[in-house]
Every structure is written in C-alpha cells, then in structure tokens.
Write a structure and sequence with these properties.
Radius of gyration: 17 Å
Largest sheet: 5 strands, parallel
Order of helices and strands: EHEHHEEHHEHEHHEH
Strand content: 15-25%
Helix content: 40-55%
Bound molecules: 2'-deoxycytidine-5'-monophosphate
Number of strands: 7
Amino acid sequence: MAKVIAIDGPSGSGKSSTSRRVADRLGFLHVDSGALYRIMTWQCLARGVDTTDPAAVAACAESVGVECRPEGGAIAYYVEGEAPGNRIRTPEINAHASHVATVKAVRDRVTAILRGMTAQGDLVVEGRDITTAVFPDSPARFYLTASAEARALRRQREEVAKGIANQSAEAVKASLLARDAIDSTRKYAPLKKADGALEIDSTELTLDQVVETVLAALPPDWKK
Ligand code: DC
C-alpha cells in the first residue's frame, strides 16, 4: 500500500515548500491539491460560470478533464493537453477559488482524483482537508500554521518573484484572511487541525527546521 504524508494548513503557512522538500528527501511524489481547486476555478471563469452558483460550478467542474502524471518528482496536471502554469495563480483565481472549493461535487471529484494517485507511488499531499477528509487514516499527518503577517509577507514575495502580481503586503493579507475565513467555516471538509495531527508553527522557524520536524515525526520505517 502506498505511503501518504498529509500536510494541511492555511495559505502561506509553508506547506508547499515543506511538502516539496520532504517529498524530495524521501523520493515520494509531491501533490499540490490546491492546484486542482484552482484548475476547476480557472475553467469556471474561462467558461463564464458564476462561481457563487453551486449548481453551475458543479456542472462545470464535472466536465473538466484533468490528466495527472508523475513528472520531476511531483504529480503534474494537464487540462486538454496544456499545463495551466501561472494562469491558476492570479489574484482573480485566488479570489474565486474558495467559493468553488465550497461546492460538494467539486470536493468529491478532487478527493477521488487525489485518492487515485496512490496508484502512482508514495505521496506527500498538501492542502486543507488532506488530514481530515482525504487521507484521515495516514499515520503521518501535519498541520502547519504561521502568523497572518508572516504568511502574507511570504505570499507577497512569491507573487513578485514569480512576476504574477505586484500587490502590497496589506492587500495580500486581506485576500488571504478572506480566503481563510471561507476555507475554515465552509460546510464540507473545512480547514481545521485534525485530531492526532502534529501542529507546527513555522513563524519563527526556517524551512530546514520545519522539514526536519516533519521527517523526525514519520514512522521509523518510512525514513531513508
Ligand atoms: O493552497 P491553495 O491556495 O492553492 O488552494 C486554493 C484554494 O483551494 C483555497 O481556497 C483552498 C482550497 N483548497 C481546499 O479547499 N482543499 C484543499 N485540499 C486544497 C485547497
């Protein structure tokens, strides 16, 4: 059976960098589950769907074909043969993704896609409901947090470095807190710390320290 390391947390908590590094160290595949919600959002917007209309969002999400293939140590996604790239990382997608992620049909579809990936190998999966709903039985579950200021600063620097946007840290913080509120209060699979998950506050920690904390907490026979 495939081993799954599950990592949840709000935006900017360090999930992506940590998951990528942990996957790299262990030779597991890195899985960005948020990208699947972003792809669904991108496709809704491209087709003119109102993202606050759950029935319309569900119908659109069901028709999106997503191909998932292992590539360079991660699961890469393709929609109609094309990699979405930074088109799913814009402030517009940020603003709509939380709404799309509240729709049960979308969550069910993404959950099924994620569970199916265990056929591809051992995984490090990051998201909001991985420890609570997608892989709640994994013996390696983590909840990453950081202060809102630290998270906003990280995201803002990332947007500038990748040339995605040039928003102020304040604007990034406002958008991030708005998304946190929707993600943690929604009806289906809200973001919360799972019972039994190890909480790591990364505000004052380096990436290396967070990675080492995760590796140290894994079942002994999972480590290389
Ligand atoms: O991690 P991210 O910012 O790329 O996530 C994009 C959106 O998808 C965000 O609003 C939270 C949502 N999401 C979710 O509901 N469940 C997941 N497992 C991952 C992301």
